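Researcher: Structure prediction, please.
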Amino acid sequence: ALLTGCATAAGTPPGPVQTPATAVGGTPCDPPLTVPASIIASVRAQFDAPGAPRPAVSPEDMVAYQKMQTEQREKDWAATCYFRADNAALAAQPAIADRVIFMGDSITQLWGLAEPQDFGPARVNRGISGQTTPQMLLRFKQDVLALKPKAVHILAGVNDIAGNTGPTTLEDIENNIASMVELAKAHGVQVILATPLPAGKFTWAPQLKPGPQVAQYADWVRRYAAAQDLVLADYYPVLATPDGSLKPDLSPDGVHPNKAGYALMTPITQAAIAKALAR
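Model: Predicted structure follows.
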């Protein structure tokens, strides 16, 4: 798998992959490791014009990258080092009043490649491929709250359903989401809570039939957002087939949107951000 779990078919965007030193100290993270060039090229190409050839990932690069990912999981389970340098760079810049942080997994991370113009110092992407809600909860304070945003966009949960970090229940996912929401509220951060994207299959866990669970979780997100007076970003209806799968023309693998899929999500996101920033 490229990165972890959710990125098996769609690949992983370029970026730092960092592993921490074993000793506790002022700089616990090692310098960023370099993502192999053929992986970067392959991932970027999936958002090129339809029909354009996608470069192959060399076997040597794949082995090297898998080794890097194994080291990361062993030493830094929640990937708390992944954005440490980027966060420090942002903190050194002038404050931005209407900053929005996007917290999520590979669907969020790849969004930055599909629509790079949508992100920057005011719209900060903090997605990490393959992550589950307990991992996001562990890094929520440093990757969201420390950046002092006006709002946070949370899109998470599908990797939990896939079992990326072990067996879980919908209640576990809901509790982790609720904890992130409670942290955001305690710090005066507006929450944009996103429904999961539909998924009828997982290429990295083909034994699962997740459609009904994903739909059930999406229903909970809608109810919870209403009960907590959160801004809802409901992506599910525009992307779903009647059986709860992601429309095949909007995804290369049934989980990750392609450029057309992200284009359908964008106006929903923009409306949600406008509503959150107006509060």
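Model: Confidence is low (pLDDT under 50) at residues 1-14, 16-21.
Researcher: Thanks, that helps.
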